Description:
The protein is mainly alpha-helical.
Amino acid sequence: MAxxxxxxxxxxxxxxxxxxxxxxxxxxxxxxxxDPTLVYFIFTWxxxxxxxxxxxxxxxxxxxxxxxxxxxxxxxVKEGESDxxxxxxxxxxxxxxxxxxxxIDIVVEKLEG
Length: 113
């Protein structure tokens, strides 16, 4: 499969925020090194999946902490939101219908391809 390294890295970032396995500082470092569109996608997938979820407070809280403490990440999210790949994805897919691995496979293939 193509882009396996990139997919593993992207999934690692998503899962670190989702599970709280890394600090806001460590997560921000990973995010700041990532493509802004990928950062937007990861945050949006997490927000969509954790709306009305028992673990929402923790996951959304980590996103808020990262964005409020590290404004560079917030700028990346805003920059990534305007990418044409986001429009394509949102017209053809649903964040909620994809598990994290399926989601990362699709977006990384599109971003890197």
